[in-house]
Design goal:
Blueprint (H helix, E strand, L loop, with lengths): L2 E9 L16 H13 L6 E2 L8 E11 L5 H11 L4 E9 L11 E10 L12 E3 L5 H9 L3 E4 L14 E12 L2 E8 L6 H13 L5 H10 L14 E7 L18 H4 L6
Parallel strand pairs: 3-10, 5-6
Antiparallel strand pairs: 1-3, 1-4, 2-3, 5-9, 5-10, 7-8, 8-9
Helix pairs in contact: 1-2, 3-4, 3-5
Length: 272
């Protein structure tokens, strides 16, 4: 396949310094482009649906690149995976129209935050879940989350280094579900600002701990002042869980391969 190729990826964010290429070659993009270039026999430049930070994982990341040399789909899939380091894998590969753009054609993005609420820190799931040792009040977190739904100026939940032209985003879904000792927070929006999800998680945790009232979240949102909000929460439990596109592009359906770790705990996928 020559032309524009779309790929679905999953990766363990602990093993990389984020998505975006770095001089030291420590990013997911560096590893992927090096493997693709070897399969392709020429340099490859990828465009991604969502640039994740260091420590943030992906269940369904989407990228595209332009190939000038013909390769079968199996080469982009199995050939690339044979050359990738542990912790990142191509899940699917598909030739797409040259009009497709992994970033700009995305209609919605979804993130999942998995939080262990238990007195003892995680061991087997270290780096894969966030952790709060004191009990959380789910009802108060749900009430607080409702204030964030809709289209707002999310400046109070935006990192100082965020490069987005506008702080306005439309948060279409925010679920706070408890499964035993796990809280699973599902976020769905047209797009997200830098650190927006982690900053919202931090605020909801403060409410869950009783440090602030649910109404405080609305006050912070309306203040548009980052200094009024909670600290940015750990990246450990954050997953880019899905990216939605118009069916006309013919991309494979979103698949949750987190399996034993989170599929049973979360019980849901984004309602795309």
């Amino acid at each position: 396949m020559a032309g524009r190729i779309a790929l679905g990826l999953e990766y363990d964010g602990r093993l990389f310094c984020g998505w975006q290429t770095q001089p030291g070659g420590c990013a997911v993009q560096d590893a992927l482009e090096a493997a693709l270039a070897e399969v392709h026999g020429a340099p490859v430049s990828t465009i991604v649906a969502g640039r994740t930070d260091a420590g943030v994982h992906a269940l369904n990341q989407v990228v595209h690149f332009d190939a000038v040399n013909d390769r079968p789909e199996s080469a982009w899939l199995r050939g690339t995976n044979a050359l990738l380091p542990p912790g990142v894998a191509v899940v699917w590969a598909k030739q797409v129209s040259e009009e497709f753009n992994a970033r700009y054609a995305a209609l919605e993005r979804a993130y999942r935050y998995v939080l262990l609420n238990h007195p003892v820190r995680p061991a087997l799931l270290a780096g894969k879940v966030g952790w709060v040792h004191a009990p959380l009040d789910q009802a108060n977190m749900v009430e607080a989350a409702a204030h964030l739904l809709g289209e707002h100026d999310f400046s109070a939940f935006r990192a100082a280094e965020c490069q987005a032209k506008s702080p306005v985003r439309q948060l279409r879904e925010l679920n706070v579900v408890r499964h035993g000792d796990f809280f699973v927070l599902e976020f769905r929006a047209n797009a997200f600002l830098h650190h927006q999800v982690r900053n919202m998680v931090g605020a909801l945790v403060w409410v869950g701990l009783g440090r602030r009232s649910p109404a405080w979240v609305k006050e912070v949102l309306e203040s548009r002042d980052r200094s009024q909000a909670a600290a940015t929460f750990a990246a450990d439990g954050l997953y880019l869980s899905a990216v939605r596109y118009d069916p006309k592009w013919g991309l494979p359906a979103t698949v949750d391969r987190s399996g034993w770790a989170f599929a049973g705990a979360a019980g849901i996928m984004p309602s795309f």
